[in-house]
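**Discrete fold encoding**
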Amino acid sequence: MNKFEYHLVENELNAKDFIRLKVATGFRDRPIEQVEKALKSNLFDVTAVYNDEVIGMGRLVGDGAMYWYLQEIIVLPQFQGQGIGTRIVNRLLDYIKENTSPGTFVSVGLTAATGKDTFYEKFGFSKSLGMTKYIER
């Protein structure tokens, strides 16, 4: 893909774009009501927009003080490898730094999709002993 112009937008992620990006990248569909509720609990989100279409997203969840989690760092496959995911993660990490009091310690976590560990390692994330449990109803 040739160089193209896109821009980042903050705190405008909507449920329809969220679901579309998740499904387009192989993740499970979610009910719109569930996604709308989840997005209301975001601490911060970033979307990448190209030609008025959301092509990437990332969001922060957590308590906004000691524990921050990067969630749904997703870029549509045809736009991957262009630095969009890197810009999204950097903006999320910058937001954490901007909203953390000097002299404090915070924990930033994430669950990387299979095969994406090396992407996050370049930001200083490392594999840990963390565990995840999924509950399906």
